[in-house]
HD superfamily phosphohydrolase
Amino acid sequence: MESCMRRHRTTQASSSLPLESIDFFNKLTRLACLLHDCGHSSFSHQFSKVPSIAAMLGTSEPFQRLWAQANISDENMAALYPQRPKKLEHEHYSVRCAWEILLAPNSEQTPYSALDVTALMETTTGAVTPEFSRHAELIWPLLSGSTETPKQPEKHIVRLLRLIVSGEIDADRADYMLRDGFHSSVTIGGFNLDHLLKNLHVGWDPESDWMGLAITPKGLGALEDFVYSRHQMYRKVYGHKTSIGFDWLLRQAMEEVIGQPDVGEYVKACLTDIDEFCYLTDNYFWEQFRLLARKQPNSYSQMMINRVRPHHLHTEESMGTVDQEPIKMMLAERHDLQPEQVVCCALKARFSKIKGAYEDIKVMQKGSNPERTLPQYVRIGEVSNFFHKFEDETIAHFYRKP
């Protein structure tokens, strides 16, 4: 947040800076960044891909029960979610957890409204309090470089901060891509985060009523490296045959233990009660794997406990959808197996979304008109064709079913 507000500071005396508002938005954004993924349950994204759990989350019942005992007024509830979602994602749990954390009766009271924090998180409408709106008006000249404040500046600022919390160049991705690359020893496709942040600014174009992230021409290369790094991490790490194979094995083991009545009922109870949700941890499932493995030595749970890697047969990469059945037949014949003994696990990377998402990140250029005080902003596609090169990819790995 601080790096994005750097522009125009040098033109103002320090005494005229809205220090209170700067502190307000910095801390509010940090809170939202820290809480925006707290709704992830056991084993992160793999949790909701387990068929039985996906069925539990595929109705509006968990949402209604999650909020039934919440300390929230009808007005705030309507502001957050005018319509109840028909399907729950981890982002819905993040909002509910954040609300519970910020309003917990035994916790230290925070000066930041739960409504303002959750406004910066996904799935909400972005409704804010009058306090947020007051700070938005105070900080507007600093953010925009303009003395003219539009109607409802808070809407522009909410949209801007949501890009930082959960956008194409958000704090989460900037962190986990470098961390995952380091721990997986994948050095290809790295990017210079410091250089990227130094050249990333807040952009405001009153003519098109646009406020968002803007990159300088000097920082465009760092932004391209950032996108390329993400592309390579998907291809080399997240889509690796061992990673995908263990993801499949994990889902099978979770489905296996959830099939037990006591476990299935407990998981369902945790998904509909925020006080119980925090107990649905990785350790809980590891213990269930151990218990089932002792009863059933040939189970998926036993494979997870002993880290038995699925036997990899073949990899197929395609710019479209991989036709699995002919490949399964071919592999079954080659390895003297039945077709049903060949399992396919596919990762669909929607890289084509990069083009549309990055069109909203504009390039900040010096204006040719000397009378214009604000910079000019051009679509990133007019300056670089790099972001148009990405297309959806499917990485499909085939394994012998244990």
